[in-house]
Amino acid sequence: IAETIIYTGCIDEYFGYRLGHLNYRTVRFETEELQQEDYQGNAVVNYTAREVPYTRIIEHKHFEFGNQPTTVISREYSAEWKPGLEPYYPVNDAENGELYAKYKALAEEQGNVIFGGRLGQYRYYDMDNRMRSVDGMFYDIYDTMLSAEQTLNELEDIVRDIVAKGIEECTDQEYEMLWNYQIANNLLDGI
């Protein structure tokens, strides 16, 4: 087992909900295969208009530059979360902020666990802020670990398993792990 653990799951779950459940938002997907080569020309298009019931459409083939004669899209809808569903986003209000502060205090006592991502840090990140957070977190980790290269080698098997499972089957945590792995790999290439 590694000396330092990076945990990107729900911070309240890590501690067995001993202080209570934090609230989250989740998403549900409606996926369909369309009998056309291309639907939107991009992997992800976000929709912010109030009258549109979904928040984004994902066209999976554009993640891997597919050229299949048909395409698969997923419409993403925001949904209420309850235990048993996969959490995606924290609920930023006073009550959850106070509970998270208590969990954060427990996390700071851990010493060898780094809590990261929007579930581990109970914070919503826009992509630019998320990149800065991951970038900063990586350098903090790199400074404290004996061998970042060894850590990447250990992650390769995990990442390979996630990729083999297929993009449609990835959880949010797995997407985040893939993203973090790619960033770490790119940073090490530059060092």
Strand % is 15-25%
Globally, the shape reads: globular
What is the typical, i.e. mean, pLDDT?
80
What's the quaternary structure here?
Answer: single chain
SS elements, strand count: 7
Roughly what percent helix?
40-55%
- Tally of contiguous helical segments: 6
Distance between the termini: 26 Å
Strand order in the largest sheet? 3-4-5-2-6
Listing every helix as H and every strand as E from the N terminus to the C terminus, the arrangement reads: EHEEEEEHEHHHH
Structural class: alpha+beta
Plain-language structure description:
- The protein has six helices and seven strands, in the order βαβββββαβαααα.
- By secondary structure, the protein is α+β, with helices and mostly antiparallel strands.
- The chain has a five-stranded antiparallel β-sheet with strand order 3-4-5-2-6, with no helix packed on it. A two-stranded parallel ribbon has the order 1-7.
- α5 packs across α6.
- The mean pLDDT is 80.
What topology does this entry show?
Elements: E1 5-7, H1 11-14, E2 24-34, E3 44-46, E4 56-59, E5 71-80, E6 89-90, H2 94-108, E7 113-115, H3 117-120, H4 127-144, H5 148-165, H6 172-190
Parallel strand pairs: 1-7
Antiparallel strand pairs: 2-5, 2-6, 3-4, 4-5
Helix pairs in contact: 5-6
